[in-house]
Each structure stands twice: as C-alpha cells, then as structure tokens.
Amino acid sequence: METFSERLLREHQDTWQAMQQHRFVCDIEQDRLPAEVFNRYLVFEGQFVSTAIAIFALGISKAPDISQQRWLTGVLNALLDTQITWFDAVLAKRQVSPADYPNDLPGVIRFRDGMLNVAREGSYAQFIVLMFGAEWMYYSWCKRVSEKSLSDEDIRRWVELHAEEEFFQQAGWLKTELDRCAQTLSETEKSALSALYDDVLRWEIDFHTQAYGEE
Ligand SMILES: Cc1ncc(CO)c(N)n1
Fold it and tell me: CDD domains per the record (predicted)?
C-alpha cells in the first residue's frame, strides 16, 4: 500500500522535479555554479539555519512524547553544532560578510516566514511536513550530485553533508514519522498537509532562485 509520504511525492511530482532540476542544483551538478551565487546562497542559507533551529524548537514543544523529543533534540544539536560551526568557518574563509547582502529579498522572506508561521501556529504533523519537505528533497538532490566531481571544496562539503548517512537518517526519520502521524488523520487533514507540502517545495524553489540575484 502507498504510504502518505509516497502519496505526497506522487501528487507533487511536478513541483518536486522543478526543485530537483532547479538551475541552482543543475549548476552545481555540472560544476559551473558561479562563486558569487554560492556566496549569496551561503548568506541566505546561514540565516535559514537559524530559522530551522527555531522551527525545530517549536516542533519539539509540540511533539507527542519523549522519544520524538529526544530524537528532535539530537537534530537541533546537530544544527547548533555542526551546521552553525561550518557556516562561521566557510563565511570567514570565503570572506563573505552577511551585512553586505540584502536582507529583504521576497523569495528569502517568503520561505522563512512561511515556514516559521506554520511551525508557530500549526500542529506537530504540519511541522513534520515542513521538515520532511525540506530535508527529503535536499537528501535526494545532494545524493545525486555527490556522485559528481565538484571542484569547489566548500560546495563539495556542503553537498556531502546532505548526502551522508547521518542526514539520510534524519530525513528518513521525518518520512517515517510523517507516515505514522498520517495514520490517525482524516482525509480532509491529509489533503491539507498535501497542499502544505506543495507550498514548502515552491518556497524552496523561489529561495534557491534568489541566490542568482534580486529578480
Ligand atoms: C533552504 C534549505 N532547505 C532545506 C534544507 C535541508 O536541511 C536546507 N539545508 N536548506
């Protein structure tokens, strides 16, 4: 039988493919992403890691019991340790100062506020859809792209971080958790989650487009 996460992937194939074949992803895959685009991405992405920390904290507060809270706290710690540490180092190494970049680009704001609003106002299942939407999609393209030879070592490391076993476990946990949550939901609730999943992918697409500039 089709699981709920499989249903979401089937119902939103087109949006999923648009992200998997996004210009940003294809430029990395073909080893031709301009350094200035990656630098701009790093600024927006570093800000999103802070947002993700808030989203996970909200998710932990809504988790139904201690086993989920324990797992999600591990994820939160990885964001605070591995990811924040990596961002500080890579921005310094590439001499990128976030203050030199715009902080009001619509694609970046829509993604941040869309995710944060749902995490604040929504249910635990909605939180799981947000992070399943973001992480499973990243695992998929990064896994594919990690097979290629990438000449920029920072891009290579960033892709590897999202293709390796630890991240796969994290994204896979969200997928299983979503399927578990969906078992007790009505069809009305499930179709609302399906619409939210499509929103997340669209926010992601516009966020990544924004790395190319201010259009
Ligand atoms: C913008 C964005 N979406 C998803 C992920 C996956 O965690 C990420 N690191 N950044």
Answer: TenA_E_Spr0628-like (cd19358)
Burial 49-87 (b: 16+ CB within 10 A, else e): eeebbebbebbbebbeeeebbebbeebbebbeeebeebb
- Pocket lined around ligand 1, Cβ cut-off 6 Å: 45, 48, 134-135, 138, 204, 207
Alpha carbon distance 54, 107 (integer Å): 19
Is the dihedral angle over the CA atoms 87, 42, 144, 27 positive or is it negative? negative
| pLDDT single digits (tens) 80-103 | 998 899 999 999 999 999 999 999
State the closest ligand 1 atom to the C-alpha of 83, by its place in the atom list counted from 1. Answer: 9
DSSP-H helix ranges across 84-164: 84-93, 106-121, 124-145, 153-161
43 token code pair: 């600024």
DSSP assignment of 16-78 equals: HHHHHT-HHHHHHHTT---HHHHHHHHHHHHHHHHHHHHHHHHHHHH-SSHHHHHHHHHHHHH
Residue 183 Cα to ligand 1 middle (Å): 27
- d(C-alpha 182, C-alpha 189), whole Å: 9
Q: Whose CA is nearest to atom 7 of ligand 1?
A: 135
* Terminal alpha carbon distance of the chain: 43
Q: What is the ipTM metric for this complex?
A: 0.97
Taking only the tens place, the pLDDT of each residue in 135-147 is 999 999 999 999 9
Q: Which two tokens stand for residue 84?
A: 């924040």
Measured from the CA of 135, which atom of ligand 1 is nearest? 6
- CB of 55 closer than 8 Å to CB of 131: yes
